Known about the structure:
By secondary structure, the protein is mainly β. The chain has a single domain, classed as Jelly Rolls. The protein has 1 helix and 15 strands. Strands 1, 2, 4, 5, 7, 9, 10, 11, 13 and 15 form a 10-stranded mixed β-sheet that branches. The protein is globular and about 45 Å long.
Amino acid sequence: MLVIFLLLFAGKVFAATTLHGTTTVSGLSPNQTQGIQGGCAKTSSSTPWDYAYFLMDTTAPSSGTSEVFIPTASSPPCFFQRASGSQYIFFVSKPLSASVTLGGTLNGKCSGIESAAGQNSGCSFLVYRYDGRTQAFADVLWTSGTTGEYSTSCATATIPSGSSPAVTLNIGDRIIVAPEVQAAGGVWGGNGSRTTGLCWNGAAAGANEVSITFSETMTFSADTTQPGLRMTVGD
């Protein structure tokens, strides 16, 4: 009995946590930016941009979606943008229900699509700790490498493995994943007419998967409405 207990306990301690991007809108309110991001970001709108915060859940969704936009010819990176409206696509977890200290391996999937092979686009992640008490973007948990080049239909794309710094996430904190467009497979081919898009809300290991896996076990409370922090793009 003791052996069984120890095995179960060990499995619980070292079990990984995967968060899957969904189309459910997070309770974290969009926070208006004070400008338009540079790089390959579309700059045709003069209105302030904000973030479309989509929930990340430990349960993988089952139906995929995608949204494309027209990046500029300027070199990446830039955040993925919604097809309509002045919004960057971010993913946010539910609030943590127990504190956890990171420091282990990180893996990610960032499925996407491009309209032509010459676009040479892929994806990387910027991952943040969102402080639930100060309602502010806090530590950077991961600046990932880049996937391979996207194809002209939605397909899974793997982000190279990395590791997080030794950062403690407290009760009420959230994890925010910001996918960024990057050049992949050759010289950046944005020309003001080709499109790049994000594919998410799909099953694990499928063509529409945006997910991040931590080596640590995490538990989350129910999503709640929470005001967002106004911040300048690039912070």
